[in-house]
Description:
Layout: H1 11-37, H2 40-60, H3 87-93, E1 114-120, E2 124-126, E3 129-140, E4 146-154
Antiparallel strand pairs: 1-3, 2-3, 3-4
Amino acid sequence: xxxxxxxxxxxxxxxxxxxxxxxxxxxxxxxxxxxxxxxxxxxxxxxxxxxxxxxxxxxxxxxxxxxxxxxxxxxxxxxxxxxxxxxxxxxxxxxxxxxxxxxxxxxxxxxxxxxxxxxxxxxxxxxxxxxxxxxxxxxxxxxxxxxxxxxxxxxx
Length: 156
């Protein structure tokens, strides 16, 4: 009968296994580094979309035209967005790029790298209704994107 033989790995088998594991680990690490390198951009774009949607929704909830006849309507943009009473106030007061603020006009520090601009078009007839095109543009000083969303505000 054969003598009991202890089974195990040879030095060559151990070296080959370590080389295969090293190559696999290197490939996985390279893939993770490649995917992780561009992961900030989608986050910035998603935040920009939320900012734009917030501004657009806020403006769309306001009146089509100024409910206070001039000259009693406040013309000062610094009074805070909570006091703007019609969609044209947004177009007039956000006509240049500015950092996002809350509705009272206080800057939001965590969003200071974003820039917001809103334009409100002249009245136009669309489908028989008098409308204005409202567009919000959000950019990021470090990002390579220019996000724009728009809606039509109808006079009723």
